[in-house]
Amino acid sequence: MADTTSTTTLSSTYTSLINYQIQLESKPLTRLEDQKTQLETQRAVYADLKIKLEALRASAKALLSTDPFYSLKEGKSVSITPGDTDKTVASASVSSSAVAGSYSLSNIVLAKNHKVRSDVQEYTDQDLSMSGTFYIGGAATRSASQNITGVSSFGTDAVEGGQTALSTDTYYVEMRKSGETWQFRMVDSSGNAVSIKNGESYSSDWQAVSAGTTYSTGRGMTIDFGSDTSKYVASTKGSGAAAVKYDADNTTATMQKAVESFSTGTTIETGQQELGSGNYYVETRQNTSGEWQFRLVDSEGNAVKTKIAEDTYSSNWQSIPTGGGTYDTGRGLTISFGSDSSQYVAATKATGATSVSYAAKGAEIEVTSDMSLVDIADAINNATYGSGNEVTATIINKQLIISADNTGSTHSIVASGSVLEDLGILSGSSYKNEMQTASDASFTVEGMTVTRSKNTGLTDVIAGVTLNLASDAEGQTATINIKADSSASRTAINSFISGFNALQTYLTSKLSVTKNADETYTRGALSGDTSLSSLRYSLLSMFTKYDATGGLYKSMTELGITAIDSTTIGVTDETKLTEALASHYSEVTDLFDRVMSNVNTTLSKYSGTKAYVDQMISSNEDQSENVSDQIDTWNTRLEQRKAYLTKQYVEVQAQMTLLSYQQQTNSSWISSLSIYS
Questions:
Q1: How many CA atoms lie within 13 A of 117 on its CB side?
Q2: Beta bridge mates, 295
């Protein structure tokens, strides 16, 4: 007899009976699986909600004046109206710090770059049979010469009869030029002129300076003036005057400064560009920890990249070496600081920084007899120059033309070498064929004459405006118009409103309970979450609330921003908002600070780390894990139940099969008996 216990021998009838039974017993498992699906859907909604809450919170923070990314700024726009409509005179960009108004622009003379040329050569691509070395873009030898206010040092002497000794204080020697004569006077720490010896009398008035002379104040202090008047600069207490700390009791007079001297570095460090020729300023300050720091700036006040550590260069502030000493920029200039930090003073380019005139070495060009004019031009173009000293060589009509890359009188080409004389570029120390001299831009703004070394990127002419003179601006006129522009603020406000409404619409959808036609209900994934329902109306109320203690504006409604329906907001009065931003910017800022602070505080309870939504996600994950465990238990139980039923029905089927066999056997036996009857 065949093995009747195999599950594969079950008939379809018994299999159907087992499946039906398991189906009946699986209803709790189905409910658990539905619950798990619901939890997973809910968790996804909470995660999506968190993103929307955080986005709205970011938009709200951007409307707080204390935020680094504050976007509700008093905007400005700029336009330029040329006197000749067929000409493009200038372009400009503007920041919020610009002052609204109209500014006339006239008498424009563009800055020009320096251009020189050689004599006409017989060939451009054949050997010139010239040899030697020349320098271009520099002075062949680096040099650094300190610019001084005029005062080289201070000393002490006796108080003259009938005079009162100077009080212990910090004094400043102010200087000016009257015609061709340099003059000075002394002021105290409050800026008051001090009476000192003037010839045989005493006066607080300006008096003439004789270069290289020591002047006695007659009141306990002497002033030594340098002999090189070319280094003198006009100065006041607030802008560059030499300062001295005078101690009447101990009779000492010490010049207050950080920088003692400048010199040239030995080499330009690998990968670095030499400083360009020009004037540089060493600005100094004391940080919050009391540490003295410095940085180098150029003649226009731009910070210059210098060495701060091994193979590290930066234009940021850096510490002055402890105890003074020499600091090497790695780019051709060294700075020596005094050892007595008590004499250091905070200084900027505009207020007392020590300055230096630096001459770059320039590019060294080696010419051999087999080089052509083209080869020399290539050597010039491929050379490395100090920043701002760059030149470009071209060949036109068999002439070598060398042009400074930068405009302005401070960017004249400096060159030397016999080869340049042979080419006809130099005649002795002068240029033989000068095509264009280096010159500054000059123009008049509102009747005031302005000069700059370049034509574009002019940030210091009109406050908050970057001005760019066009190539055909020479001799033209224009009007620069600056006006209030709230477009950036409106963009930020609209961004917030959009995010606000998106959140509210999302919450409404996910919290909804809808009755269907068949009397059943469709529930949103977050239905029943009373905390989120409260959030919807709490947020809306902030835009309808009237704050009697507020300033000019006591509610958002007064700005034209109010509720559109039971959950969303919008700008319902464009004119109100536009006029408020234009005329009462600070008051609008105050209102937004109050409202957005409340919005941010409220949202932080829901979207912050471990805040409400995070807690709900965590709780959901715990529930989901628990349900998964129950599902696993039920699956195991049902598998065991199915195995049990299968075993039972296999036995039943085997018994039924046996019974059928017996019936067939009995039937055959009975039939056989009938034969003998």
A1: 13
A2: 283
Do 501 and 394 share a structural domain? Answer: no
Residue 272 and residue 367 in one domain: no
Contact 648, 5 (CB under 8 A): no
User: Same domain for 263 and 179?
Assistant: no
CA distance 101 to 479: 10
**Domain contains 324:** yes
pLDDT of 123 strictly over 70: yes
**Element (DSSP H or E) covering residue 64:** none
Question: Which of these three, 256, 272, 289, is where a domain ends?
Answer: 256
Task: Inform me whether the pLDDT recorded for 611 exceeds 50.
Answer: yes
Residue 657 lies in a domain: no
Residues facing 133 on adjacent strands: 366
Domain check: are 192 and 212 in the same one? yes
Any idea what the Cα angle at residue 412 is, between residues 127 and 392, rounded to 5°? 40
Nearest-angstrom CA–CA distance, 472 and 110: 9
Segment 462-520, tens digit of pLDDT = 999 999 999 999 999 999 999 988 888 999 999 999 999 999 999 999 999 988 888 88
Do 237 and 312 fall into the same domain? no
Residues 157 and 239 in one domain: yes
Cβ atoms of 621 and 51 within 8 Å: the answer is: no
Q: At what angle do helices 612-674 and 27-61 cross, to 10 degrees?
A: 160
Distance from C-alpha of 295 to C-alpha of 318, rounded to nearest angstrom? 7
What is the DSSP secondary-structure string of 296-309? EE-TTS-B--EEEE
Neighbouring residues of 365: CB distance < 8 A, sequence distance ≥ 6: 133, 134, 135, 136, 376, 379, 380, 383, 417, 419
Could you give the number of structural domains in the chain? 5
Q: What share of the chain is helix, strand, coil (3-state, %, to 5)?
A: 30, 30, 35
CB proximity list for 300: less than 8 A, separation 6 or greater: 453, 460
CATH code, 387: 2.60.40
DSSP per-residue codes, 191-228: S-B--EEETTEEESS-EE--TT-EEE-SEEEEEEEPS-
Residue 589, CB half-sphere, CA atoms under 13 Å: how many? 16
Give the domain range for residue 408: 113-141+361-436
- Secondary structure of residue 623 in the 3-state scheme: helix
The count of C-alpha atoms lying within 13 angstroms of the C-alpha of 343, restricted to the half-sphere facing its C-beta, is 21
Residues in contact with 196: Cβ distance below 8 Å, sequence separation at least 6, in sequence order: 186, 202, 203, 204, 217, 218, 219
Kind plus residue range of the DSSP H or E element containing 630: helix 612-674
Q: Which residue has the tokens 């465990």?
A: 629
Residue 46 inside a domain? The answer is no
Helix (H) or strand (E) holding 584, with range, is none
Taking the model in full, what pTM does it have? Answer: 0.65
Asked whether residue 628 is assigned to any structural domain, the reply reads no
Determine the Cα–Cα distance for residues 294 and 262; give it in Å rounded to an integer. 14
- For residues 588 and 504, membership in a common domain is answered with yes
Amino acid at 293: Q
User: 358, 379, 414 — which closes off a domain?
Assistant: 358
Query: How many residues make up the chain in this entry?
Result: 677
Residues 369 and 429 in one domain: yes
* Burial zone of 56 (CB within 10 Å; 0-12 exposed, 13-18 middle, 19+ buried): buried
Q: How far apart are CA 186 and CA 225, in angstroms?
A: 13
Q: What was the pLDDT predicted at 677? A: 56
Query: Which pLDDT score is estimated for 676?
Result: 61
Helices marked H in 366-479: 373-382, 418-423
Are 116 and 425 in contact by the 8 Å Cβ rule? The answer is yes
